[in-house]
User: Fold these one by one.
Assistant:
Number 1:
Amino acid sequence: MAYDLVVIGSGPGGYVCAVKAAQLGLKVAVVEKRATYGGTCLNIGCIPSKALLHASEMYSHAAHGMDSLGIEGLAPKLNLAKMLGHKDATVKSNVDGVAFLFKKNKIDGFQGTGKVLGAGKVAVTSDKGEEQVLETKAIVIATGSDVAGIPGVKVDFDEKVIVSSTGAIALEKVPENLIVVGGGVIGLELGSVWMRLGSKVTVVEYLDTILGGMDGEVSKQFQRMLAKQGMDIRVGAKVTGVEKTKSGAKVTFEPVKGGEATTLEANVVLVATGRRPYTDGLGLAEAGVALDNRGRVEIDGHFQTNVPGIYALGDVVRGPMLAHKAEDEGVALAEILAGQAGHVNYDVIPSVVYTQPEVASVGKTEEELKAAGVAYKVGKFPFSANGRARAMLATDGFVKILADKETDRVLGGHIVGFGAGEMIHEITVLMEFGGSAEDLGRTCHAHPTMSEAVKEAALGAFFKPIHM
Ligand SMILES: Cc1cc2nc3c(=O)[nH]c(=O)nc-3n(C[C@H](O)[C@H](O)[C@H](O)COP(=O)(O)OP(=O)(O)OC[C@H]3O[C@@H](n4cnc5c(N)ncnc54)[C@H](O)[C@@H]3O)c2cc1C
């Protein structure tokens, strides 16, 4: 049977594109080499990590956080196997959900490795080695990303002692010591999980700051908060070796600016230095599909590669490696393939770090505005002046709104604090509609809520906050 669309990869980019295309009347097939749908995000990424972040946070609260609320004497006992079971059950219900969506939308699923034979043809090879060729009007490459190592350093991942994020969500024992190489989102989230469960965690980061690329003020404050929680963070440190030892592994690093090397030992080392676009075995070179100098599939403004009829989206193309960016691209591309006008606004893509407290951001950072020579104004409001935050003992952190000095249009929003990942969306919607700090500051917010701090920060950018 000939398809309108064959999608290779069933992560958030691929499955959402398939569902949307089917909803718009296209005949769709999805090829997935993993045993379950949902890609990195649902199987080994966003979803399992959030299940563990939530469970470990509850544990940590019960163990340390309730005395000041008058709840004393809690002595929680960790059942790690059960916690991992909760994570696995969460993954299962999510990947089953994608299978249900495929069935509901009459999408044909093919389990096997997809290879592009050229425009209009995809070969699928099953685990048993059986091959079939699917014919289609359009091909979407949505093969995502894979773990990247450390440039210039040989890392032998065994996923038990030297682990990637995949091993770090499945450790069978809480390591006494954990070294995390890379102070980005994934390293800090998974480092937090094991720290809450009892590990002594050391983070080694190449840049001068953790969460490189985030607003500088936010990442500085966040680093202080993590240090207060007990995380040992070494910035400006270049890792030169990761090796197994008799009792675990050791990491050697030296100051980026030059100086003496340090070697630390731990039971487990998590290498979380980023991800690379995944195009292995796809046959792109033979099919003439061009990659850029970072190995990403090159696309135009309509997601089309240099070969007509072959498209790509998600982690395998340019832009932030985020599930919701991939999803929005999936929707836009399906609309384009169905003859509609699909579009993604790359200026308004939120990003969230699901630690405690959370960090969330959308739009430009102060550093980016400065570098671009944009005249801007800043409104900031601390949670320590917010009634609900005081009631919840969640006063750490602040909201920061950046607005154009002339027009008052909101250009960026940054939050570090409890619930930041939910609160960021009101700034996101406002920015999508081209709203101003005054619009946000004059919008009635329910009292008492953490979100009132967003309103107050906007008031601060526009004129003055009331409660400070
Ligand atoms: C630990 C971790 C936590 C994360 N947390 C978050 C988060 O909280 N929020 C967020 O936004 N992002 C998060 N991410 C990133 C997110 O997972 C990715 O941005 C997202 O999965 C990208 O979606 P995708 O569809 O492009 O690719 P993927 O989800 O990587 O899916 C690609 C799929 O293609 C399949 N595939 C590859 N090659 C072939 C082939 N030749 N034939 C058939 N199938 C193939 C793969 O098996 C895979 O299932 C996290 C990532 C990790 C690792």
Number 2:
Amino acid sequence: MSRVALVTGGSRGIGAAISMALKEAGYTVAANYAGNDEAAAKFTAETGIKTYKWSVADYDACAAGIAQVEADLGPVDVLVNNAGITRDAPFHKMTREQWDQVIGTNLNGIFNMTHPLWNGMRDRKFGRIINISSINGQKGQFAQANYSAAKAGDIGFTKALAQEGARAGITVNAICPGYIATEMVMAVPEKVRESIIATIPVGRLGDVTDIARCVVFLAADSAGFITGATITANGGQYMT
Ligand SMILES: NC(=O)c1ccc[n+]([C@@H]2O[C@H](COP(=O)([O-])OP(=O)(O)OC[C@H]3O[C@@H](n4cnc5c(N)ncnc54)[C@H](OP(=O)(O)O)[C@@H]3O)[C@@H](O)[C@H]2O)c1
């Protein structure tokens, strides 16, 4: 029986690449998404990977969604907390709603997804939790107090939970992508994009596969000695 992996926000962008790479590596994959039914249907048609719709910001919806995935595919061995949003504004213009939405999805979301799965992983003495944080959680970013706070919180969560999971065969790790050539980044004006690339020592944006390969590495059964780690994949833009 192949191991089961659940990827949040797994139907688009970095998450889609993660879902496909895990499938390629032999996992049975479930991809969660929030609301873009069209993209999810296209993704399933192209890859054969099942998609499941719920918001990671809603604890009860996560518990119900996970129960459905486990009924369909079996116990989840690998959880990739990838779903994330931005609601950027300089702090003097940031609204309470922008703050709450980003914390609700990017920080509360990883609690909401990990908590319902935790005891099952403990009982089975195996689990892989991989949290997709960000370079901006490491260094901070103008107009992203909400996003940087949530992404830094993801790293703290990772380090704390890694200590609790260690004796139960559960590893908990974080990945911090730099600027990746997703639709969002490619939509910014070329001049802005060029100015971003100028700050990246390797001289290019990251590709979604640069992040997916880190996930496959951390998800492996053989990666059991790596826990509480933060893998930085940013082309050398920020070195911690
Ligand atoms: N792109 C970058 O350069 C970059 C850099 C550093 C870190 N990251 C992080 O990497 C992750 C993926 O980013 P991306 O650029 O690939 O994002 P993206 O292309 O915007 O895709 C986001 C995915 O997350 C899903 N999603 C959003 N809110 C959700 C919610 N409440 N519940 C469930 N799913 C939700 C979306 O679902 P729908 O399709 O239904 O909308 C979509 O599948 C994020 O955590 C982001 O912060 C990205």
